[in-house]
Design brief:
The chain is an alpha/beta fold. The chain contains 17 helices and nine strands. The longest helix is centred in the C-terminal third of the chain and has 21 residues.
Length: about 450
Amino acid sequence: MPTDKSKAGANEIAPAKGKLGIMIPGMGAVATTFVAGVEAVRKGISSPIGSLTQMGTIRLGKRTEGRSPKIKDFMPLAGLNDLVFTGWDIFEDDMYSAAGKAGVLDRSLLEQVKPFLSSIKPRKAVFDKNYVKKLDGPNVKKGKNKIELAEQVRDDIRDFKQSSGADRLVMIWCGSTETFIESGAAHKTVEALEKAMHDNDENIAPSMVYAYAAMKEGVPFANGAPNLTVDIPAMHALSKQMEAPICGKDYKTGQTLIKTILAPGFKARMIGLHGWFSTNILGNRDGEVLDDPGSFKTKEESKLSVLEHILQPELYPELYGNICHKVRINYYPPRGDNKEGWDNIDIFGWLGYPMQIKVDFLCRDSILAAPLVLDLVLLLDLAKRSPALRGIGIQEWLSFYFKSPMTAEGLYPEHDLFIQSMKLKNTMRHLMGEEMITHLGLEYYD
């Protein structure tokens, strides 16, 4: 049980009363797998495997105390039965039809949640083919400029809150990877951003329109793609101003998850690395979008940064100062959502003798992403209710879930999965008034 001190900490966080509305730009494979999964868990059909908030525990105090409650019992999180959903998409399919076309979940499971999924129909989306060249669809908003489109999204947010009876809201991007954009003058300040939106500046992508609308409504926003979106100074400032927590970017699911597990191990044992070649084949809509060079460039930037930050070549030039790191993604329709990632890793050990590791990860992209979406919406809602977190903008403690974690200006991102996990759980302990866990353990041997 939590200590009296932790109870006092819990009282500082507003309780998760009422319904939590989840708003999803992009009702494709990831979104439908997430929502279908939540409903399946609510109906007792399946278990929320992969969700840290639902299945994970957190150690409190000394090892000898034996206190390891489930996170969902320790933190004042929204319950799954309190979640309600809406979304936007360029296609007109309801979530049941969209899930069927995505081909991730078995038809037998979809039939058991059909009434619920069929009730979630997409709102007209903010979309511009210039940013996702491989897709097009009819269910698109019209407006004279991007500010007007943002106002339409804000109307959607208010409408959903009223019609669903939601007390609180979170928005999470599950849409496609947009073409590569670098942060520039249009992104420096809120005023510059709004002027650029008014002028239909090409540096304002559709995902930024959604994020801006969410921020202006005080709604937390998570970016599950490698798009720039909220990782610009203007959004950082708006997030703080409106007390709307933000995090991102790009869900850490398949190949990058493996990298952030293996690379810390190499560095911990001072094993050298000559090169890491990664290639992927996938056939879902994500793969189709990434077949465009502009969208691939956005994804590549996200995936390539991982090793450099984990291995710190500036500190260990002899081990990691000359790494050859290559990433390839190939669209292969027969594979569908069942992505395959191959890694060839050339390492070296004692006296420089070479060795190799081969990894073949036959993963299911949306199956790995869905529990991350669940955790993120619940933890962002917690951040919004926490006086310690809601006004700080970027929620770096949620880096655990992302390929390219956002940080405050001047900080390098932490990519090591194990450091990210410790940061995540220590933040939870801190919020609840519990002591940090350092794993020092010397007191046991006095």
